[in-house]
Write a structure and sequence with these properties.
The protein is mainly beta. The chain folds into 5 domains: about 400 residues, Rossmann fold (3-Layer(aba) Sandwich); about 80 residues, Carboxypeptidase-like, regulatory domain (Immunoglobulin-like, Sandwich); about 80 residues, Immunoglobulin-like (Sandwich), CATH 2.60.40.1120; about 80 residues, Carboxypeptidase-like, regulatory domain (Immunoglobulin-like); about 100 residues, Immunoglobulins (Immunoglobulin-like, Sandwich), CATH 2.60.40.10. The chain contains 11 helices and 49 strands. Strands 6-7-5-9-11-12-13 form a 7-stranded parallel β-sheet, sandwiched between helices. Strands 1, 2, 3, 4, 8 and 10 form a 6-stranded antiparallel β-sheet that branches. A hairpin with a 4-residue loop joins strand 2 and strand 3. Helix 6 runs parallel beside helix 9, helix 7 runs parallel beside helix 8 and helix 9 crosses helix 10. The N and C termini lie far apart (about 110 Å).
Length: about 750
Amino acid sequence: MRKTIILLVIAILLISSFPTIVVAASPGSPAPASGFSSQQILVKFKPSTSLPEVAQIHRKLGGQVKKTIPGIGVQVVTVPKGQVMAKAQAYSSNARVAYAEPDLMAEALGSPDDPRFGSQWGMVKVQASQAWEVTNGSSSINIAILDTGVDLDHPDLANKVISSIDFSHSGTVDDVHGHGTHVAGIAAAMTNNGIGVAGLGYSSTIMNVKVLGDTGSGAYSWIVSGIMWAVDNGAEIINMSLGGSSPSSALEDAINYAWSKGVVVVAAAGNYGNTAPLYPAYYTNCIAVAATDSLDRLAGWSNYGDWVDVAAPGVGIYATLKNNGYGYKSGTSMASPHVAGLAALVFTTLSDTNGNGKLNDEVRSRIEVNCDDIGLSGIGYGRINAARAVDSVPVPPGAMTGQVTDAEDGSAISGAEVSDGIRTAVTDAVGMYTIDDVSPGSYQVTASKEGYQTSSLTVNVPSGITALANFSLSQIIVPGSITGSVTDAEDGSPIAGAAVTDGTRTVTTDASGKYTIADVPAGSYEVTASKEGYHSSSLTVTVLSRSSAVANLVLTQVIVPGSITGSVTDAEDGSPIAGAAVTDGTRMTTTDATGKYNIANVPAGTYQVTASKEGYVSVTLTATVVSGGISVMNFSLNPKSAPINIMWVDSFRFIMCGKNLFIEVSVATASGVVVRADVGLSLVCSTGELWNFSSTTNTAGLVKFKLGKAPVGSYVTTVTSLTCSGFTWDTTKGITTASYALSG
């Protein structure tokens, strides 16, 4: 009957448009776009989310929790005005959030402007009088009317209302709008009391749950709260002559909660004359009701489609009105309470045939399979017939069939037992089974076979229908084991008493270093061996069902660190050098007043040990440290010689002045220029002539050489000597040769 909506489509609907539910839609008018609360969203967190995490998410996203709807854990969250869609998307994007959605608005499904018919023709059409000859229902059966409220002073309703609650913030549980009073009268007005009209539910009682405001509209959160309250306060039936064109996860959660608690949920299919879904009627665990007229024709404005379950009278329905009145209304809002009232009668006529501890599945099946087939297109079962539903026609049993296969390779499993809790069948050679004579209803069906894990499915068996239930069984994995040895890395000798663990189980090696870890489920494990005095060692092994994985572990002894010690003395006079730095490359210490040092906690190995102090030439020695041993390293440092100043030719400069060529040379050192440096220079011309010069740098470190009447040609000049007291010429630095071209 239902088709799952693609999640992507739902998301688009939630983001781009939200259809509305209208109190009084004209026949054939389209469903208008729905609105939502300007400052409220509905948020449900995943079960694993902690309270501190919930609080942190609200702080981050700027939501304030107004209340939590018990049972399904949905929070009504206040957000800044105008940010409903943005905040709903922000919450939905959080990995801890199951869903977040606007708090949509729903409105009563009202009365199209159709001609009136005789009073209560609908009761005659569904054979209510014949049904009442079988049962008048019971005052213990409560019908929750989730609507605009109920006129609590109405003579045909006052003594039927056993409880009232307002979730709409109207300030009164009474029916200011008028819609809920008419709906309540159809379902359960006082019957056989000498006044007014009869309600199809006859002796059943009314729970007045106001979820729509005085204008006929209401937030989805009000409706969800109303459903939860009705379920938790004893309702057997919930009627919702209301709806919205946008889906809601919170609303669906509430419907599913009600169904799981044994409640029959009935809702109007809508008055828009098309197949578009209306919520909550569209949800699987809700009976969706279309409207028919006195000639058993589908009302032109009634919704229909493969998601609509049954039809009921809904055109020109005479029932109670507010202010103690009576009158006509039309709409699927009027059809829905006919089904709710009938459900109240059916509850008293049947038993729990499938043993699931609830009657709602039997009630729904009894109503649906006993509908009159009046040729309605797009309606699942036809128009309801109260007399047939309570007694006239027995409900034919259904059946269930299917195949049981291996989850790993898809092969058929023969000899598997399939049970619905009452009957059991065994699969044949191709894994097929059939269970016949199954009373209509929902069953928890299990398939089992030795060596396989049992699998369960919830199967709904309609009357006269064979339901399909295929099972895929996983083999029971028999544990394997991990075995091996633990040995010493140095000599290969066995290590007894070592602890070996796979992270869950731990054993100890025997005298021969062997071990076995038994009952290890199939999978990959990090196996670790350890013992005092040894470094732990690990291996990754894969254990297969019924097999033994080998993990041989080798342990290396823990090495006790040693030390490096000795003295540092002056190479010239043998005196101790205090404050000298001694390092092995990782650790460093300084010598004491007697020149002694000690580097402790040095792991075994070979080290380059260096001793150094300002004014001395550093010395490096090689030391070998064994486990727990002491390596003695004595150092003798030579004092550093006085520094030697380095100089070099820093630049050449060629200057033509008339016919004279001047060559200017700059001599530099690291600290500046060199004064009184003697510079020797050779100059060769391409004409073959050679000149040699020598001179001394001035206070600017410069020396200038002159070649008078320089011939035209190419010149190469080379520094042949550079001397100065206290300085050494470094020919690898600076410039030693330069060239110059003199043109005519």
